Amino acid sequence: MTRAEEFEELRSLLFAIAYRILGSVSEAEDAVQETWLRYQASPTRPTSTKAFLSAVVTRISIDVLRSARVRREEYVGHWLPEPLLDDPYEDPARSAELADSVSMAALLLLERLSPLERAVFVLREVFGFGFPEVASAVGRSEAACRQLAVRARRHMDAGRPRFEADRREREELAERFFDAFRDGDVDRLRELLAADVQLVGDGGGRAPQLARAVVGAAKVARLLAAIVPPMARIHVTFEPREINGQPGAIFRDRDDKVLHTWTLDILDGRIQTIHSLINPDKLGHLGPVADAWAVAREAAQARRLTD
To answer: Where is the SnoaL-like domain (predicted)?
Structure first.
């Protein structure tokens, strides 16, 4: 088997590792490409190609994350991970860990970890690598990696909800939510939202965004219902679909360009958080991106006509 063939067999795993460490599709793709270049330039063939490439992509991702964290501290507004429609890597033996680790909630929890803790957690807890492989990948002793894993697991467990919704329950609730949203029905929307629900937006200063999170079922329900008439007038549409393993939707303008995405955190039979991502820099991998400012101006004009 050629190096290129070996690499292609492992590409989906390498992307899956990099995305969970970085929370960015574009940065993960760049890390995978850099891994290929380094593998191609390596004078020797490793004993285990999987271990070697996983270590390389992990080290690259750690370096990228360290610089990215500085940028994220200066980020305008609320930072959200780039939406992932389909996780290319599948492992039936670890399907639960893989699905959980790619959710918006889990990725935001991972942001609280140091780059080394995050890498160790991803390799060990998500992908099941042994500590010798983890230690080699991050350049630390096995004992140090065990300590990093314990700290990371403690942070992650402390931030997780106590009761997870099962998949069917989430899908049914999301379907009812999007039906109520399509109808602009405030009362039905409010019934499906947790009392302290949050609507969180990420425009990154590159698109219209909420000045702060909107909190509370009544406020969020009224806001959502209010945007439906002008949205319909300017032919903005939405397509419910799974994003980051959760119920969500992709919104498009009249030219079918991607405007923004929603993902829903569902717990205890209610929607706890709506993550709205409209930063165009994070949507390009989904297709041609709409001019959100132009859409907002058109929506404002349509709202005045509606009123």
So the answer is: 174-246
